[in-house]
């Protein structure tokens, strides 16, 4: 396993009225954060909050290209970001103990904090399609360019882990500084991660390690905290 220090390249917040960030997602233009009783969207260029939706938002958040998905206790809500309406709900696999959430390959991927698992689930029924085991508490989860990453959070220590999506083996670890905890997690689709800062009410930007390109001939933390 490759292990290195996480490179934090920026921070947003704390945001007015936000005591904690539980989940994070990115719609290509705005970063959405789950803050308990609201989903807030902010501009990643300026940090300005542009929109708020009053909805239960106490754990992970995801975006499928059109709709938001939000863990709320024992269920996952499908939300229209334009109107704020909850269009449908499915059961959450952890029954109230879920953390992270992301969208990839036509499925939702759900982190289970204390169970140390990541589930791939059917977004229509909530049926579990696959389970990946971890040896750390799992917070946020995200996919980027075929890589599965998740956050960990135990006591005052957090890290970002790239894992094998079949075996769960840890391939790479980015260690956060002491006290810089990771709740929600989402990739920007390129070279950065948005990381929820837990009960500090912040979001940090962490650089994703560059990959070698082969030559081609054709050119203060709580263990009970829920997060994305």
Q: Sum up the overall morphology in one term.
A: globular
Number of strands: 21
Query: What number of structural domains do the residues give?
Result: 1
CATH class: Mainly Beta
Q: Under the CATH scheme, which architecture would be assigned?
A: 6 Propeller
Give the topology string: H per helix, E per strand. Answer: EEEEEEEEEEEEEEEEEEEEE
Main sheet makeup: 5 strands, mixed
Strand order of the largest sheet: 1-18-17-16-15
**What's the number of helices?**
0
As a percent range, the share of helical residues equals under 10%
Poorly predicted parts:
214-219, 221-227
Radius of gyration: 16 Å
Based on helices, strands and strand pairing, what is the structural class?
mainly beta
Q: How far from one another are the termini?
A: 24 Å
Would you kindly provide a written description of the structure presented here, covering whatever features stand out?
This protein starts with a strand and ends in a 21-residue tail after the last strand. 0% of the residues lie in helices and 51% in strands. Residues 214-219 and 221-227 have low confidence and may be disordered. The chain is built from no helices and 21 strands. By secondary structure, the chain is mainly β. The strands form five sheets. A five-stranded mixed sheet has the order 1-18-17-16-15, with no helix packed on it. The radius of gyration is 16 Å and the shape is globular. It has a single domain, classed as TolB, C-terminal domain (Neuraminidase), CATH 2.120.10.
